[in-house]
Amino acid sequence: MTVEIPKLSREEFEAYPLSLSLSGIFYEADVLYTYEEYREHFDLTMNTANNNMFFFSSAGLQTFRNIQISICEGEWVMVSKNKAPAIHFVIHHPKMVEAIERFTPPII
Questions:
Q1: H-helix or E-strand spanning residue 21
Q2: By CB distance 3.0 to 4.6 Å, which of 6, 33, 43, 62 could disulfide with 38?
Q3: 3-class state of residue 41 by DSSP
Q4: Which own/partner pairs from 50-58 qualify as long-range (CB within 8 Å, at least 24 positions apart)?
């Protein structure tokens, strides 16, 4: 599993504050990060030893701010909306799965 996490400057964070993604538990309220909490969480995550099951990488920008894309290569893709109400789309169609796997986010 590869987890890609945006590495945001204070200015980027203040322009688009992050909240803890709780869509998987259908929690109705946002749990907002402070910049300091975000940086601590980011640093702790990146300092976690990569192993055969998990690999953590940082992204220079955050293309999507309200969705999370989970991919099981060649099997399925799940697109989740992070804000309440939580919505999850699971895609099994082979051509759509392949298209999303090959998707390259636009550079802003």
A1: none
A2: 33
A3: helix
A4: 53/1, 54/1, 54/2, 54/3, 55/1, 55/2, 55/3, 56/2, 56/3, 56/5, 57/2, 57/3, 57/4, 57/5, 58/4, 58/5, 58/6, 58/7
Judged by DSSP in three states, 105 sits in coil
Residue in this structure with the two tokens 């909490």, named with its chain if needed? 37
Burial of 90 (0-12, 13-18, 19+ CB in 10 A): exposed
Phi and psi for 80 in degrees, rounded to 5?
Answer: -120, 135
Q: 23-61, pLDDT tens digit by residue?
A: 667 677 778 889 999 899 888 888 876 667 777 777 666
pLDDT in tens, 60-83: 666 677 778 888 889 999 988 877
The better pLDDT of the pair 28, 97 is held by 97
